[in-house]
Amino acid sequence: MKTDSIVQTIPLSGRKRSLIEDARRDRESGSSSPGPSRCGDSFVFEEEKSGKVTLNILFALRNEKNAGFFKAGKVFETFEAKLLHLESRPSRKSKKSGEDDLEFFMRCEVHCSDTDIFINSLKRVADDVRIVQEEKIPWFPKKISDLDKCNHLITKYDPDLDQDHPVSEKHGDPLPVVEYTPEEIATWREVYGTLSNLYPTHACRQFLEALGQLESERLYGEDKIPQLGEVSAFLKERTGFQLRPVAGLLSARDFLASLAFRVFQCTQYIRHPSAPMHSPEPDCCHELLGHIPMLADKEFAQFSQEIGLASLGASDEDIEKLSTLYWFTVEFGLCKQNGTVKAYGAGLLSSYGELLYALSNEPQYKPFNPAETAVQPYQDQSYQPVYFVSESFEDAKHKLRQYSSTIQKPFSIRYDPYTCSMEVLDEPSKIQNALAQMRDDLKILHKALERLGQK
């Protein structure tokens, strides 16, 4: 629905500053943390935060295999290298020469500072030691508890920002209960009441359904600010998403990585009462009213996780593009429903003025195309001149997956929902295990269809 009645309020700019500008800063400075590297045909992962690197090494031992192997073992012992995997085979060269040589493949973990001298020492006791120059790929979390390391806050000074924010928690900690002041609750009441008048005509169907559920379960209402613990439990039951409190604006890479685990980093502080319709950074009004209802929808939750998965191990340039994609979809996206354009972006659903503007005759609409959206210039001083309209969340998810497949990475990743961890599919056995699990799931679905057909 469109309207010509526009209320000019300042749009929310904090998430944009957190994601797009931060990602652009990282790309220009090349400051992303090093991560996976490639040795030969195998990919290895450098855990920069632990000070160690995992190496894949190929080498050969001639004739006196036992003596040579013991000498190689002494090198590993000297540098406190942790052996992770070992394979051996007859040397290909020995088949031609008739000599009884062996080739070894070793995966080991050593201190980053010892890498060069470790390799040189191994070359003194072994032949054909092969390792190539490392291809730096940014570190990314492999399990949900690794999100404790994804806590890089944007700390640049801004006089408009409230510096007295709660600190972030560790994985597994109970979500803190905040006692809001009467003044803060009054601010929430004004924001909630004002936006609620627009939702029936401006918000998408999925948002309205989830908001109705939140209100019917008495988690949402004008008279109290929802607590993250209760809201997180609500989301967990519906889409598997859970909330994690954060102290401020996270870096783009860390924020997107959290989405890959279906974790939404959420603030608990509220905007200043002097400007209830504006916040220079994401506050609980933006998170609870804009993001939470949409994350309760399964299709949208999957779309959000897909952006996060695409970001893992991505280059700084791709992080900037994914941040822009996130900005024009999750934050400021529009969709078609019953022939009418509706809002699903959190930045719109938590901003009275921009919600009116986005569905007026003022801005330009473009169909959602990830390749075009990812490089769309954005406006950080006023409302966006361009909004992207999705045909449906299913269509948007399909297009996002196609776009993600074009991001150059030396590996593929599979999310394991049972262990809440990422599996790097860099070995045939891992792919076979994943396929076996898919076959088991398909058998269950096939059996269910057979039973339905018998009724």
List keywords for this structure.
455 residues; alpha+beta; Phenylalanine Hydroxylase; Alpha-Beta Plaits; 3 domains; six-stranded antiparallel sheet; 14 strands; disordered N terminus; iron ion binding; cytoplasm; Aro-AA_hydroxylase_C_sf; neurotransmitter biosynthesis; EC 1.14.16.2
Give a written overview of the molecule.
- The chain folds into three domains: 14-32 and 140-413, Aromatic amino acid hydroxylase (Phenylalanine Hydroxylase), CATH 1.10.800; 36-130, Alpha-Beta Plaits (2-Layer Sandwich); 428-454.
- The longest helix has 27 residues, at 428-454.
- It is an alpha+beta fold and 455 residues long.
- The model is unreliable at 1-13, 33-45 and 155-167 (pLDDT under 50).
- The strands form four sheets. Strands 1, 2, 3, 4, 5 and 6 form a six-stranded antiparallel beta sheet that branches.
- Helix 15 (370-373) links the parallel strand 11 and strand 12 (386-390).
- It has helices at residues 14-29, 65-78, 92-97, 115-125, 182-196, 199-202, 205-216, 228-238, 252-260, 284-295, 298-311, 316-331, 346-349, 352-358, 370-373, 393-404, 428-454; strands at residues 36-39, 42-47, 52-61, 82-90, 102-111, 127-130, 242-245, 263-266, 334-337, 340-343, 364-367, 386-390, 413-416, 421-424.
- It is found in: Cell projection, Axon; Cytoplasm, Perinuclear region.
- It catalyses: (6R)-L-erythro-5,6,7,8-tetrahydrobiopterin + L-tyrosine + O2 = (4aS,6R)-4a-hydroxy-L-erythro-5,6,7,8-tetrahydrobiopterin + L-dopa.
- Residues 18-29 have a biased composition (Basic and acidic residues).
- Keywords: Catecholamine biosynthesis, Cell projection, Cytoplasm, Iron, Metal-binding, Monooxygenase, Neurotransmitter biosynthesis, Oxidoreductase, Phosphoprotein.
